[in-house]
């Protein structure tokens, strides 16, 4: 468990994540509304080179970023409004990881088959008012975890 005391700590964690992120990686971010999923994604995007604030992809569903703006292509995905996993096929997300890293909020909306090998991060409220982050670390991430 990793303690994230506030939004700044969530963004700092995202920056650490960005240091080891590569094309083909999928990081899923789960937790209630306001848990800090977007803060982690914004921290990662800023560390990868994004100037300015990353918009939440809640309405667009997919926000894409590419070099030279970032050091690698990234899709920031918010599945909150997805009602059925077939919608992912329409968005082309089945092939997206071939040339991008994916940061996926609300992955539970589509089940587990899509990104079975993802670094799965879950945020929950902590007693101190911050967030408790837990991770399910797949084999592809073992050499990169824990983040330093």
Automatic annotation (TrEMBL):
Localization, UniProt: Cytoplasm
Q: Which domain of life is it from?
A: Bacteria
Q: Which molecular function terms from Gene Ontology are attached?
A: ATP binding; metal ion binding; transferase activity
Question: Where does the UniProt entry say this protein principally localizes?
Answer: cytoplasm
What keywords is this UniProt entry annotated with? ATP-binding, Cytoplasm, Magnesium, Metal-binding, Nucleotide-binding, Transferase, tRNA processing
Q: Does the keyword ATP-binding apply?
A: yes
Q: Which family does it belong to?
A: Belongs to the TsaE family.
User: Per its record, how is this protein called by name?
Assistant: tRNA threonylcarbamoyladenosine biosynthesis protein TsaE
């Amino acid at each position: 468990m990793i303690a994230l005391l506030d939004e700044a700590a969530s963004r700092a964690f995202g920056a650490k994540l960005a240091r080891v992120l590569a094309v083909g990686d999928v990081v899923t971010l789960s937790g209630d509304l306001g848990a800090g999923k977007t803060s982690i994604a914004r921290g990662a995007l800023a560390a990868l080179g994004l100037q300015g604030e990353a918009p939440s992809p809640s309405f667009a569903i997919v926000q894409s970023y590419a070099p030279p703006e970032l050091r690698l292509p990234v899709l920031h995905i918010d599945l909150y409004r997805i009602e059925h996993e077939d919608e992912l096929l329409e968005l082309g997300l089945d092939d997206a990881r071939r040339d991008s890293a994916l940061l996926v909020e609300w992955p539970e909306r589509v089940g587990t088959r899509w990104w079975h090998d993802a670094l799965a991060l879950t945020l929950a409220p902590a007693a101190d008012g911050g967030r408790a982050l837990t991770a399910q670390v797949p084999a592809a991430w073992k050499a990169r975890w824990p983040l330093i």
